[in-house]
Amino acid sequence: MKIVERFLAFVGLLSLCALFIYALQDAPTDENFEKKLINDYNVYALQVPDDLNFAGESVPLNNPDIYERMDRELLVNTYWQSNGLLMFKRAKKYFPVIEPILKAHGVPDDFKYLAVIESGLTNAVSPAGARGVWQIMPATARENGLEVNSNVDERYNLEKATHVACKYLIEAKDKLGSWTLAAASYNAGKSGVERRLEEQEVSSYYDLLLGEETGRYVFRIIALKEILSHPTKYGFNFRDKDLYNSVPTFKVEVDTVVTNFYKFAQEFGINYKILKLHNPWLREPHLNNKSRKQYFIEIPQEGHYMVN
């Protein structure tokens, strides 16, 4: 009996030892956990480039305040990875529309990044009433020939809105003296920036004491320019096929009333949702057009959507 008891005790001891050894191997110790965490994800301080500029106008990074503000925007936008990837994806789709219009007006290409920070390249809606990729206010739109009402809102027409943005920026550059100040005025208004320059007796954006939003505004544009221009440098990895592409379209001229866009869309083999995706400036499912104005409605080329 004693032999049996000793044998069982020995077996039990072996089992406990085995469990102890297994636990030691599998236990998520602090050391193992920290090692795994470090290997899986790293956050680095960023090196602010020495030669940053906006529209050819240098950023005075030798000024400690300017350096810190630039560093902040690079960090915030680099480590907001999901948003950053969306900007790369949308830029592939919308920059080809924006870039030639900027060039045609003589506006520096860097201003396409202003559209990025204004709206994330979406048809955003602000509490103040601004709309579209360029976030244009109703009065500014109407002053520059855009139609804005409940039936048609051309601030949502990217091509037309980009022309208006260019006109504003050229006027701001002429009034304020630099493209950097023109960019700041897109946020604070031409008169608002001019008044602060006079009050503080300075001539540069980088010497102005401004509120939080306008004070960060140009730095955010420059940060997005730097990151979107050098994706791998800032840790963004993607293939060209991961980015969004525009769908080829053709334009249909309309100079009459359209009573039903549901049926109008069906005539071109698409549905109303697809019609709206390509023409967000059409705000209602009909077009009043009592004045017989000429509109151009974009229709996607055949084969790009499957419609039931």
From TrEMBL:
Domain of life (superkingdom): Bacteria
InterPro entries: Lysozyme-like_dom_sf (IPR023346), Transglycosylase_SLT_dom_1 (IPR008258)
Transglycosylase SLT domain mapped to chain residues: 103-201
Residue spans crossing the bilayer: none
SUPFAM superfamilies listed in its UniProt record: Lysozyme-like
Coiled coil: none
Similarity comment: family membership: Belongs to the transglycosylase Slt family.
Protein name: Lytic transglycosylase domain-containing protein
The organism of origin for this protein: Allotamlana fucoidanivorans
